[in-house]
Amino acid sequence: MVDETAVTDGRVERGSRNRRAVVDALIALTDEGVLQPSVAQVADRAGVSERSVFRHFEDMASLHEVAAQIQMERIAPLFRSVGPDGTLADRVAALVAGRCELLEANAPVRRAARLREPFYPEVRRILDRGRRALRHQLEETFAPELDRLSDPVRVEVLAALDVATSWDTWEVLRHVQRLAEDEATAVVRRTVSCLLA
After folding, report:
1. Is 69:126 a contact under the CB 8 Å cutoff?
2. Distance of CA 18 to the CA centre of its chain
3. What average pLDDT does range 6-22 have in this prediction?
4. What per-residue string of b and e applies to 128-143 under the rule 16 or more CB within 10 Å gives b?
5. d(CA 136, CA 105)
6. What is the pLDDT of residues 68-87, one digit of tens each?
7. Dist. CA 148–CA 134, nearest whole Å
8. What backbone phi and psi angles, to 5 degrees, belong to 159?
9. What is the pLDDT of residue 5?
10. pLDDT per residue over 100-155, tens digit each?
11. What is the 3-state secondary structure of the chain?
């Protein structure tokens, strides 16, 4: 006699594995520099049929949304709180080192997300949440220095810190100016130090 529960459970488990394989395939292709992987490329990498991709996802937009969420979870351990204690030089060094490591690790996926952001509201929402968390990290880490400034100056300095430590700035340093990772990190550290001097 066939155990129908076991058969159903097996199908559900296989479906869940295939769904995750599709998401992982999209992220892996993006990590390798394929900014707009086709359904065929994703299916091939995941080891499923193209039809199976759309059995698990309504369309490419929903696949990209899930992939963006998974990527945020994947890089979350690289987001480390620094806090407002310690010398300014130590806090700058710690924040910049952590931020640059995060930006470098996320660069290929972020390039692809830049292309999708205008068309996929959920991807934009996930990226906006990440941007807010990074800005909050700046406010928390440099609260002693920012709190000494008048409101208009504080707004300007915080905005400048946000730009100096952003993915867009990192992309310019690494891929337009072609600086090595340690050189780009030194530029970001100098910029942040100057803004807070």
Report:
1. yes
2. 24
3. 73
4. eebeeebbebbeebbe
5. 20
6. 888 888 888 888 889 999 99
7. 21
8. -60, -40
9. 57
10. 999 998 888 888 888 888 888 888 888 898 899 999 999 999 999 999 999 999 99
11. CCCHHHHHHHHHHHHHHHHHHHHHHHHHHHHCCCCCCCHHHHHHHHCCCHHHHHHHCCCHHHHHHHHHHHHHHHHHHHCCCCCCCCCHHHHHHHHHHHHHHHHHHHHHHHHHHHHHCCCCHHHHHHHHHHHHHHHHHHHHHCHHHHCCCCHHHHHHHHHHHHHHCCHHHHHHHHHHCCCCHHHHHHHHHHHHHHHHC
Length of the chain equals 197
> With 60 as the cut, is the pLDDT of residue 7 above it?
no
Any residues with CB less than 8 A from the CB of 190 and at least 6 apart, and which? none
Closest C-alpha to 125, from 112, 116, 137: 116
CA distance 61 to 73: 19
Q: Which two tokens stand for residue 114?
A: 């830049």
